[in-house]
Amino acid sequence: MNTVPIESLYVTSLEEVFYGGALVALTMALHGFGMLGVVRANHTLKNCLGPRTNIVANLLPVIFTSWLIMLVHLVEVALWALFFLWKGAFPNHSTAYYFSLNEYTTVGSNFNLPLKWRLLEGMLATAGLLAFAWSTGILFTLAQEFMDQHTSLFRQRHPSRQVETKLPPATQNI
């Protein structure tokens, strides 16, 4: 009687590594073009709104950009889901997309890929981590612009609330 688990018989194939590498590269390419589009859309929206001093109007581009970033991520997940459907890993697009989204976000899924494609679960999570890191950088930059703008507006409107930072006399000469 053979009691060796089937997972112990798994061997990574060159085909799996090739497809995984190609999918990660495509994901990053999509993300790059997507982030360029997001930054351009943010700039265009800011130009359309013009110079405003209303906090809600100035926050609108950051919110809109967040939505666009989410859309880019969802398109990238669809790429992986389409691959899994093409290779017959899942019975329908809903399951393939659900699995791909959960793995992309590193939440994990109660589904598994067929043994032949098991390496792609980790590669999908890695692609998601890379894309989220990139998106975080973009969103941080845009949020920082928003914060700088409103800090400047606050200082202009409330000069009496300026806090001067003075060091105690003992530390001024250090």
Describe it.
The chain has helices spanning 14-49, 55-86, 93-104, 119-157. The protein has one domain. 68% of the residues lie in helices and 0% in strands. The longest helix is centred in the last third of the chain and has 39 residues, at 119-157. The termini are far apart. With 174 residues, it is mainly α.
List keywords for this structure.
single chain, 174 residues, mainly alpha
Question: Helices, strands, pairings?
Answer:
Layout: H1 14-49, H2 55-86, H3 93-104, H4 119-157
Helix pairs in contact: 1-2, 1-4, 2-3, 2-4
The tally of strands reads 0
Strand content: under 5%
Pick out the low-confidence regions. Answer: none
Count of folded domains: 1
Largest sheet: none
Mean pLDDT: 87
Put the structure in a nutshell.
The chain has four helices and no strands. The chain has 174 residues and is mainly alpha-helical. α1 (14-49) runs antiparallel to α2.
